[in-house]
Amino acid sequence: MLNLTPLRLLATSTTHKMTSTPRDITVIGGGIIGCCTAYFLTRHPSYSPDTHRITLLEASSSSAGGRTPDSIQDPATLADPTTASKKNPAHDGIAGGASGKAGGLLALWAFPSEIVPLSFRLHDELAKEHGGDKRWGYRRCHASQIDCRARLPPGFDGGVAGGTEAVGGQAEPRTKGLHKDHKTDIKALQKIGAPEDLDWLDTDEALAAYEAMSTPDKTAQVHPELFTRSMAQLAEDQGVKIVTGARVTTINKTADGKSVESVTYVKDGKEEILKTTDCVVAAGPWTRRLLPNVPVTAARAHSVVIKTPKPISSYALFTSIMLPTGFPTPTPQDARRKSTTIRPLTGQQIVEPEIYARPDGTAYACGPTDNAVELPLTSAEVEVDTARCDDIIYQVGGISDELGKDGEVLAKQACYLPQGGPWIGKVDETEGLIVAAGHTCWGIQNAPATGKLVSEIIFDGKAKSARLGSCDPARMRALWG
What phi and psi values does residue 164 have, to the nearest 5 degrees? Predict the structure, then answer.
């Protein structure tokens, strides 16, 4: 006898979609938060391409901003060309900011705790469903903390000799890594044997202490640019319209001020108005340009991508590196001008670059944040201070030949990290206005949960898969009056 239950369920679902309320949903921002939001909107049971128009607007028309001209522009060329996420020319501008230049670390020990478990699980599910291991470099990995003493680069010596200019006066304070809140006090590290597969680190001369922080059951990684591009493409495949080079200038409300009515954006010098019933502001560090009362700030971060002689084992390393006398002096945090003079240290200094080995035969390394240059108009205008990138190259090369003399620098880059959140949910009392921004250094990690929760807020009226808790903008209602 034919079982009609699945047919009844399908009919019910189809009827629900056919009778669903028409919506014009606009997502502002083509970073990982905006792209995951677009993706999960199209995966919500209530979504119907017949009655729901979803448009993603990205201000930049180029993803090359924040990279030096000689940097590799498409990381997919490093992976298997038959499986990696191919670059859609029409999507140039997607992942142009931090979403294309971050490390891509995923961890169950990230924050905020309300959404991390959901997002970590969704990352795993997305990778299984869409072949993320090959498409965007998803894999489980180790996370460890190391205490090192850097070796002097060629041409430098502890006597501060030669034609370079020595640094006098008080040494710069210790520079902090992006994930500094997760590090153990350096005094608590114990000198133990490093794992055998950490053979790309100089364990004889440079390594002073090693401590395992997390195992692959709680830690993973993705290539953030390839992941973001994939989410954008998968969303477009299900009906999302993606428009790059469209910088939103105003979110317009109805005459009574109670609801969103449209958004105004500029593209190719022309002003356009897009009808909007639901507006999701996922503009990262640019969020306050549209929602000035939302406490999201920006901090610039530099990073490099280094091709290693052979693929290296899957570790995310949180370092503490003692730079000896005579080592190239790191660029001061508040320095506004690029320096062409390499100055050796006259004392010691501790730095904390982070290093992520990737499955495409490269390693990603990032340095501390700075506020030396204000946030530009779009990600296409982000300025790279090559001296800060050179700092990172010297430092990681001081503890690893694979990252130093035997490696090849493929990219020098910079981006602005959104700080102050994350904030996920409805803004003040305006119907249809939602913010999803301020995700700090855990934006890649928490993007899937954010996208899913936003889709629920729009279609179900509330977040259902996780409690918003500290992410709820209602906590900021006093600011919005």
Answer: -85, 160
Mean pLDDT of the chain: 89
Please count the other Cβ atoms lying within 10 Å of the Cβ belonging to residue 363. 25
Higher per-residue pLDDT: 81 or 163:
81
Output the DSSP codes for 377-435. SSGGGPPP-HHHHHHHHHHHHTT-TTTTTT-EEEEEEEEEEEES--EEEE-TT-BTEEE
215-238 pLDDT, tens digit each: 999 999 999 999 999 999 999 999
Q: Check if the beta carbon of residue 328 is closer than 8 Å to that of residue 343.
A: yes
Question: HSE (CB half, 13 Å, CA atoms) of 417?
Answer: 27
Map tokens 């501008």 to a residue: 93
Q: How many CB atoms lie within 10 A of CB 73?
A: 13
Extract the tokens encoding 103. 């490390």
Q: How many CB atoms lie within 10 A of CB 51?
A: 14
- pLDDT bin (cut points 50, 70, 90) of residue 179 is low
pTM of the full predicted structure?
0.90
For residue 366, what is the enclosing H or E element?
A: strand 362-370
Can you tell me the distance from the alpha carbon of 376 to that of 362, in angstroms, rounded to the nearest whole number?
Answer: 29
Share of the chain above pLDDT 90, in %: 79
Whole-angstrom distance, CA of residue 116 vs CA of residue 442: 9
d(CA 389, CA 371): 15
